[in-house]
Amino acid sequence: MSIFPKKEKKEPKDLKELLKQFRELKINFEKISKEFELFKKDHRFSIQKTGIIRFNPFSEVGGDQSFSIALLDGNDDGAVITSLYTREGNRVSGKPIKQGRSQYTLSQEEIKAIEAAQKYDKESKSNNQTADSGGSGSY
């Protein structure tokens, strides 16, 4: 079902028909605006910001096969997941994040991942504002 009025093949005959079409457009525009506002409100709680840091926890062996990844929503809530790779195996842990902080002690890599996610969001918004104002933003 479309929210747009069906396109008629003929032009409006008079001002009365034209005004009727404008009223229908206004009603449809108001519906779309309400749906968009609901979408924006709901979207605030989806993952919007990500930051990943690769690192080597053991400087004497191996490469940057361990990582911390931050997955945050618009309120800086979410989780940071860390994978520590060793010769003996792989350990994975997760910590909840609330407003960019955790009730658990964060490693330096986890802090950097959270900061990278927040920085990416700020750069993204900055680029959008630059592009909107007629400047050239890099994406």
Give your account of this protein's structure.
By secondary structure, this protein is α+β, with helices and mostly antiparallel strands. It has helices spanning 15-43, 108-132; strands at residues 49-55, 66-72, 78-85, 90-97. It has a 4-stranded antiparallel sheet with strand order 1-2-3-4. It is built from 2 helices and 4 strands. The longest helix is centred in the first third of the chain and has 29 residues, at 15-43. The chain folds into 2 domains: 15-44; 49-131, no CATH class. A hairpin with a 4-residue loop joins strand 3 and strand 4.
What is this structure, in a nutshell?
The protein has helices at residues 15-43, 108-132, and strands at residues 49-55, 66-72, 78-85, 90-97.
Biggest sheet character: 4 strands, antiparallel
Number of domains: 2
| Outline | rod-shaped
Classify the secondary structure makeup into a structural class.
alpha+beta
- The overall pLDDT average reads 83
Low-confidence segments, given as residue ranges, are 130-139
Order of helices and strands: HEEEEH
The rounded distance between the terminal residues' Cα atoms is 35 Å
Provide keyphrases for this structure:
disordered C terminus, 139 residues, single chain, 2 helices, rod-shaped, 22% strand, 39% helix, alpha+beta, 2 domains, four-stranded antiparallel sheet
Blueprint of the fold:
Layout: H1 15-43, E1 49-55, E2 66-72, E3 78-85, E4 90-97, H2 108-132
Antiparallel strand pairs: 1-2, 2-3, 3-4
